[in-house]
Recover the amino acids of this structure.
């Protein structure tokens, strides 16, 4: 199946404060971000023309930039509005939004204090991350050879481009070997996350999820925890070892791209997607499409 390349599509991209033609949204080959991964980004889903938890994503974008020692030259409010403009300009009902901020080409070297900070926002139609069949049956995962690093070695609380290098390597190997995704452990050997999603285990009717001390505390992760608690499902955040998978009746991933996706296999462990996972899948699907209440105005 042919795929439309991302540098040659119709429409517009918001770039440093203005809407420009999609094909004109380019940067120089000597941009600092390309050589030193000095870039941060967000991934946001559009449902019925509305970006889910937009401001939370934009605030995290600012926080990520600060962790990489630069400031984005646009406010949260300005970025929120720009994201909405892009979605409207592209005519997207259900899709994906990608804001990205990066250091430019003014300085080439490890030191780059005087490099200009750029911001671009693109949006496109986005189907389910996994096929409907895979999502209903549960996906197959292998355990990655790569591990999430000690937070003393990388800004692990940021959504920084460089942190995804080992995710790409892990995902490529998994797909070559017939799996959908890979489970990543951390430097201690504890379960961390998938290549682009958080993980939950259902054990004795309770939800267990790793403490996010060396990876992102995902916005979708927090949403799912709130939905579970609303159902009186106990959620336990703790250190989880690979052998704990033997105790899990159900396992699922959650993230902006994957939403809530059941898992049927991780290495030698097998699971059957059940009612708890289905309930949270349905609750999440309802939550992201819930109409935004109108703001009351003073008489």
């Amino acid at each position: 199946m042919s795929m439309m390349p991302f540098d040659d599509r119709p429409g517009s991209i918001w770039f440093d404060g203005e809407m420009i033609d999609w094909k004109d949204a380019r940067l120089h080959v000597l941009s600092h971000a390309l050589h030193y991964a000095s870039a941060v980004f967000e991934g946001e889903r559009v449902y019925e023309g509305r970006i889910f938890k937009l401001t939370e994503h934009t605030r995290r974008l600012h926080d990520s930039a600060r962790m990489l020692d630069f400031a984005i030259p646009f406010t949260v409010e300005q970025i929120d509005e720009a994201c909405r403009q892009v979605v409207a300009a592209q005519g997207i009902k259900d899709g994906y939004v990608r804001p990205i901020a990066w250091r430019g080409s003014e300085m080439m070297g490890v030191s780059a204090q005087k490099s200009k900070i750029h911001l671009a926002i693109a949006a496109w139609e986005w189907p389910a991350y996994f096929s409907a069949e895979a999502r209903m049956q549960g996906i197959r995962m292998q355990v990655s050879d790569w591990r999430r690093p000690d937070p003393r070695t990388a800004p692990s609380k940021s959504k920084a481009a460089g942190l995804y290098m080992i995710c790409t390597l892990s995902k490529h190997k998994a797909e070559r070997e017939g799996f959908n995704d890979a489970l990543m452990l951390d430097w201690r050997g504890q379960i961390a996350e998938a290549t682009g999603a958080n993980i939950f285990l259902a054990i004795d009717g309770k939800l267990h999820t790793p403490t996010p001390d060396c990876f992102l505390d995902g916005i979708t992760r927090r949403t799912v925890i709130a939905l579970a608690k609303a159902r009186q499902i106990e959620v336990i955040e703790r250190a989880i070892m690979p052998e704990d998978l033997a105790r899990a009746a159900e396992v699922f991933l959650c993230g902006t791209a994957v939403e809530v996706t059941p898992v049927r296999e991780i290495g030698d462990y097998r699971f059957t997607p059940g009612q708890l996972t289905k309930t949270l899948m349905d609750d999440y699907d309802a939550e992201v499409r819930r109409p935004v209440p109108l703001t009351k105005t003073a008489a």
User: Anything to note?
Assistant: Residues 295-299 have pLDDT under 50 and may be disordered. The two ends are 57 Å apart (CA to CA). The chain is about 25% helix and 30% strand.
